[in-house]
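Private note to self, pasted from the team thread so I don't lose it. Backbone tokens:
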């Protein structure tokens, strides 16, 4: 397990980008007040310096290579370029990922219970992984042994660095005085205001993981079709559109940014890529050209091996706070919710 628990933990290397100043301030304030414990997992594609400064505990997820199971250690044992270059050199090489077991979650939550602080876990969405179900199972076992212990398990309902942005703001609200129960309620509402749009260099990794038919990947490659993707209110991947060429896909991301961004300029944005820094640079330049966005705080990071195993090299994403994503539900989705007698998305 990779931990970044306090200012005495391992130093951030000089090669890492520094955490934004406001993140450092939030991190210091949290350590001074320490109203609760925040646990996250490495699927949120944290910039290592951000995870370090916030002081969150990071559960390192695992992925499986031909050499065996490996831990996502926030790029301590290899660089993003090394990881993705391996995949580029062997198009037939595909890694898989493993859900966190209930037993491992139980161990982590039991340790938190022994520490005694109310605890929140912000976990990878059920739209992509079964881990969150295992976390809930483990939480029930720990609560049974420690009925006085406050433990909240939250499905982030979003992917990649959207989880990083959510964790930053949860920490900020903690420094403003919200207790654990209030932070739980805040996060369950706030998660629907984080948008993420991204494109891929090829469909091959998605096809290998069974997320699209292999024939569709073959046709898409021959026609130079690049998808623009996002995620729905359950955190599952959704296709926004198909573009002829990479540049058009990147411009589609900027268009969706303009349509959904609410100009909350005090909140950071995130740009994350799987070793596609030139396109990430282009996205940052274009964002800063938009009205009122020149001085935005933009956090840059690399897609972790966990999500990178499923999207492959060349993914680039723009993630930001914006409109309520529940308002963009399709007519059929709204009808389904009405039939179920639910006006809002479930808060589990």
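Design output:
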């Amino acid at each position: 397990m990779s931990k970044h628990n306090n200012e005495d933990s391992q130093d951030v290397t000089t090669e890492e980008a520094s955490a934004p100043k406001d993140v450092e301030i939030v991190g210091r304030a949290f350590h001074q007040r320490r109203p609760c414990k925040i646990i996250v997992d490495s699927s949120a594609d944290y910039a290592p310096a951000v995870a370090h400064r916030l002081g969150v505990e990071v559960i390192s997820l695992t992925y499986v290579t031909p050499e065996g199971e490996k831990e996502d250690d926030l790029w301590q044992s290899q660089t993003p370029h090394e990881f993705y270059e391996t995949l580029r050199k062997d198009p037939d090489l595909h890694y898989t990922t493993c859900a966190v077991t209930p037993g491992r979650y139980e161990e982590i939550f039991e340790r938190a219970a022994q520490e005694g602080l109310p605890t929140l876990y912000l976990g990878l969405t059920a739209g992509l992984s079964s881990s969150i179900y295992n976390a809930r199972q483990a939480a029930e076992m720990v609560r049974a042994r420690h009925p006085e212990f406050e433990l909240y398990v939250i499905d982030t309902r979003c992917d990649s660095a959207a989880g990083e942005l959510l964790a930053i703001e949860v920490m900020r609200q903690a420094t403003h005085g919200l207790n654990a129960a209030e932070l739980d309620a805040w996060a369950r509402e706030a998660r629907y205001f984080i948008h993420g749009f991204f494109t891929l260099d090829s469909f091959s990794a998605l096809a290998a993981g069974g997320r699209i038919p292999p024939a569709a990947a073959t046709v898409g490659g021959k026609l130079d079709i690049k998808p623009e993707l996002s995620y729905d209110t359950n955190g599952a991947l959704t296709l926004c559109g198909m573009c002829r060429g990479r540049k058009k896909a990147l411009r589609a991301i900027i268009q969706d940014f303009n349509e959904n961004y609410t100009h909350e300029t005090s909140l950071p944005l995130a740009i994350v890529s799987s070793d596609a820094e030139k396109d990430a640079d282009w996205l940052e330049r274009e964002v800063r050209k938009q009205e009122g966005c020149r001085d935005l705080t933009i956090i840059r990071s690399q897609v972790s091996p966990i999500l990178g195993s499923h999207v492959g090299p060349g993914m680039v994403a723009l993630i930001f706070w914006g409109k309520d994503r529940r308002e963009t539900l399709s007519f059929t989705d709204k009808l389904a919710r009405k039939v179920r007698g639910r006006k809002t998305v479930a808060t589990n």
